[in-house]
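Work Package 4 report. The design task specified in the project plan requires that, given a folded chain encoded as structure tokens, an amino acid be chosen for each position. We show below one input record used in the internal validation round.
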């Protein structure tokens, strides 16, 4: 497209990107301004950077946003981009405006704490995520794109949560989760709940990695829909003006009498996920400074979850496996969404331990848990990481947590006996079915795994669950809801042998 003398249409929003190029933060500023616009909304991008003459039209093609026109006067450029297709603007103009529902204010503090029911020995539970119905995924995308009001989104998510909890109860679990129905993924959703943080499509990050062609090929190989899966980007100091997941516990407790578990991404995972050069370094001098605010935010959330009556708060730190098993030093990886570079394993493990203990300090230990696995983005076992827990045990043993919920069914996890190195006063959650397998495990096989765990740790310490969640990414579930229910039911049937 050749430049014109002036734009024929008037933009709805305009911003000046100065001399930033697409690989140095401009795309993130574009996303920050274009996401709040309705479909058909017009964004003007002012720039003095010559490279975007080619890069911006290419980005528009990748993201299916329409470049309407652009002008050039001396060294100053002006690009007019439509969110979606320009035809959508014309359709929206012809239709009467629909009233936008206003979501009620979300409380950030409880007036008085609620009691949490105890979790029995040999308790059966899911790890966290549950396959979302197609209509829930459609509502999620509509909400992120500004086409569905907040209240309507939560009404839809309430219905999906009821179905997820009902399926778990039918399977015979002792502890339920809300299935993470409101989340686009188990971790990146935090960006949609924090101030000065925003979810952006993975495809926007291609210019920011060292080798975009390799990164894009990796995403394709791992079945990751890069145009749909989103990644958190930090634009300023992180603040928590509303709960991250406490509202999920509130609703779950309103529809079940069983103990409710809730999962949160751990502080090390969030730090590795959110710290990206040329983005977060505009707000923080170092990833350690960013980690301080992440710890503060998670401490605030953990305190509220205790007050909300969560029976168990689980921190997910699967990226610890990448530190010791990937064999790649100083290399970006998509493992669990952690795109930033890491240092030597000893440094990273110590950093992770200290962050977790800072979050857990002062919390009721018996109501906290740590989950570790080796990646859960595809059912293909051959591409996931592999290795015994041996190299991780010294670090895990120093984390002041009440329970460890660990992937153990897959052969990739190694033997169970190394877990004897964990603290004797901690509960041990053992994965006894593998969500990656299409078939449902035989009850006798599950019984054998439970017997092994009891022999090693004693009945009172053992908790039972699948290796990981059933739908880490909303758009890319590991299995369907009926299979998830059948696998939990297999655990519930097996545990009756010991009751």
């Amino acid at each position: 497209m050749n430049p014109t003398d002036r734009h024929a249409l008037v933009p709805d929003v305009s911003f000046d990107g100065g001399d930033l190029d697409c690989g140095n933060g401009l795309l993130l500023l574009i996303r920050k301004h274009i996401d709040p616009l309705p479909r058909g909304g017009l964004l003007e991008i002012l720039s003095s950077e010559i490279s975007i003459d080619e890069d911006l039209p290419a980005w528009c093609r990748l993201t299916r946003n329409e470049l309407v026109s652009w002008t050039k006067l001396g060294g100053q450029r002006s690009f007019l981009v439509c969110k979606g297709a320009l035809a959508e603007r014309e359709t929206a103009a012809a239709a009467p405006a629909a009233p936008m529902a206003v979501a009620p204010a979300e409380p950030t503090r409880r007036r008085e704490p609620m009691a949490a029911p105890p979790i029995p020995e040999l308790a059966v539970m899911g790890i966290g995520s549950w396959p979302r119905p197609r209509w829930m995924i459609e509502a999620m995308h509509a909400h992120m794109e500004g086409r569905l009001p907040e209240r309507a989104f939560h009404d839809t998510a309430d219905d999906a949560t009821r179905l997820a909890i009902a399926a778990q109860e039918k399977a015979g679990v002792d502890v339920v989760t809300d299935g993470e129905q409101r989340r686009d993924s188990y971790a990146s959703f935090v960006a949609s709940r924090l101030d000065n943080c925003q979810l952006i499509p993975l495809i926007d990050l291609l210019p920011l990695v060292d080798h975009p062609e390799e990164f894009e090929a990796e995403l394709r190989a791992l079945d990751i829909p890069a145009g749909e899966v989103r990644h958190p980007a930090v634009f300023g100091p992180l603040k928590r003006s509303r709960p991250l997941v406490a509202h999920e516990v509130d609703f779950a407790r309103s529809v079940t009498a069983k103990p409710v578990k809730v999962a949160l991404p751990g502080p090390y995972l969030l730090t590795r996920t959110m710290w990206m050069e040329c983005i977060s370094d505009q707000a923080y001098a170092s990833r350690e400074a960013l980690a301080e605010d992440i710890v503060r935010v998670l401490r605030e959330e953990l305190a509220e979850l205790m007050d909300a009556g969560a029976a168990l708060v689980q921190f997910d730190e699967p990226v610890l496996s990448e530190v010791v098993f990937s064999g790649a030093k100083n290399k970006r990886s998509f493992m669990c969404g952690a795109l930033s570079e890491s240092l030597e394993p000893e440094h990273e493990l110590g950093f992770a331990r200290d962050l977790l203990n800072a979050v857990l300090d002062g919390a009721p230990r018996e109501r906290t848990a740590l989950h570790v696995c080796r990646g859960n983005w595809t059912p293909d076992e051959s591409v996931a990481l592999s290795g015994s827990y041996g190299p991780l045990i010294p670090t895990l043993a120093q984390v002041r947590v009440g329970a460890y919920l660990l992937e153990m069914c897959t052969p990739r996890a190694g033997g169970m006996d190394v877990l004897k190195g964990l603290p004797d006063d901690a509960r041990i959650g053992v994965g006894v079915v593998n969500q990656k397998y299409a078939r449902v495990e035989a009850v006798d096989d599950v019984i054998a795994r439970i017997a092994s765990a009891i022999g090693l740790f004693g009945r009172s310490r053992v908790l039972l669950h699948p290796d990981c969640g059933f739908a880490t990414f909303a758009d890319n579930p590991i299995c369907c809801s009926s299979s998830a229910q059948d696998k939990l039911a297999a655990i519930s049937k097996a545990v009756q042998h010991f009751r």
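The two ends are 72 Å apart (CA to CA). Validation will be extended to a larger panel in the next phase.
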